[in-house]
Amino acid sequence: MEISSILQGGYQHPLSRTWQGRQLNKSMLMYPIFITDDDDARVEVPTLPGQCRWGVNRLEGFLGPLVKKGLASVILFGVPMKCQKDPHGGPADDPNGPVIQAIKKIRQLFPDLYIATDVCLCEYTSHGHCGYLREDQTIDTELSIARIAEVALAYAKAGAHCVAPSDMMDGRIQAIKRRLIDEGYGNRCTLMSYSAKFASALYGPFRDAAGSSPSFGNRKCYQLPPNAKGLARRAIKRDVNEGADIIMVKPALPYLDVISDAAELARDLPLACYQVSGEYAMVCAGATQGVYDLRTMAFETCESMVRAGATIILTYFTPQFLDWLDEKP
Ligand SMILES: NCc1[nH]cc(CCC(=O)O)c1CC(=O)O
Ligand SMILES: [Zn+2]
Ligand SMILES: [Zn+2]
């Protein structure tokens, strides 16, 4: 045997195995949660096992035990059920709406918990699209990004540590950054861009949870085509230049090459990826079918993302990881 043939001597011990790459840890995990406008609600989402829509009065009981276990950050999604949706997504920045109420409540209950807010219009528009539409149903980019910047500013003013636009309208990063700076929030709020967000089949359970399916058509004119490596690279570079503080790739597991590209193109920024609702549901379904052990598969998927270059992972497995990471040898 050649001397250079032997690798196993380097990873024969559990500790030396941890030295072979970066480790998943609790501060990387950002937990996506759904906030609805029925203050006492706790409604399970059938397609997203173990996840609920929460009313603001339930947040203390829901998040308290997780914060004790080391939950570091959440990302909030508003799920308005009672309000009147309109073509401009008017309810998105309603001061009495679920997101702004939740930001204030969480700041007060858990001052150390980092609060990111998803910024989009689809949960609030009557047509369910992520921007403004012209009469011919194409996107009106200028009006969309002005409105999205306004909503982002409202969340920053309410106390969000981070605003994360998921709409995929061109130019919104610049528009939001400008607005935050002009209003004195430039250094008080992080801007995380869903930069490479693909038109994926994996968003189904989320749309059930958030009630945000488009009422007609699809999102292919603003979310990226799954084959688009070049567009993804351009979107990442553009958003870095427009002032993003964090870049995100979404979904995560089928797009590890894009995560790896982003690690190179945005090498000076933290890099997030979103293990989306359909990925979570797939991992759960396989475990239920006996294909693999849930915990082992959850670790393998997220460790792949870390290996590809992610430093932040948005995942519905966050509560379970808080337990699993304590158990790990
Ligand atoms: N603004 C759209 C948005 N915000 C979050 C998700 C998906 C997140 C998930 O699946 O977990 C989506 C995708 C979509 O509906 O097109
Ligand atoms: Zn949207
Ligand atoms: Zn969104």
Automatic annotation (TrEMBL):
Entry EC no(s): 4.2.1.24
Gene3D superfamilies: Aldolase class I
GO cellular component entries: cytosol
Active site: 197, 250
A Pfam family this chain is assigned to: ALAD
Positions annotated to bind Zn(2+): 120, 122, 130
MF (Gene Ontology): porphobilinogen synthase activity; zinc ion binding
Tagged with keyword Zinc: yes
Pathway membership: Porphyrin-containing compound metabolism; protoporphyrin-IX biosynthesis; coproporphyrinogen-III from 5-aminolevulinate: step 1/4
Residues the entry annotates as binding 5-aminolevulinate 2: 277, 316
InterPro entries linked: ALAD, ALAD_AS, Aldolase_TIM
GO biological process terms held by the UniProt record: protoporphyrinogen IX biosynthetic process
Swiss-Prot/TrEMBL keywords: Heme biosynthesis, Lyase, Metal-binding, Porphyrin biosynthesis, Zinc
Top-level taxonomic group: Eukaryota
Reactions accelerated catalytically: 2 5-aminolevulinate = porphobilinogen + 2 H2O + H(+)
Cofactors, names only: Zn(2+)
PANTHER family, per database record: DELTA-AMINOLEVULINIC ACID DEHYDRATASE
Protein family according to the UniProt entry: Belongs to the ALAD family.
Protein function: Catalyzes an early step in the biosynthesis of tetrapyrroles. Binds two molecules of 5-aminolevulinate per subunit, each at a distinct site, and catalyzes their condensation to form porphobilinogen.
Protein name: Delta-aminolevulinic acid dehydratase
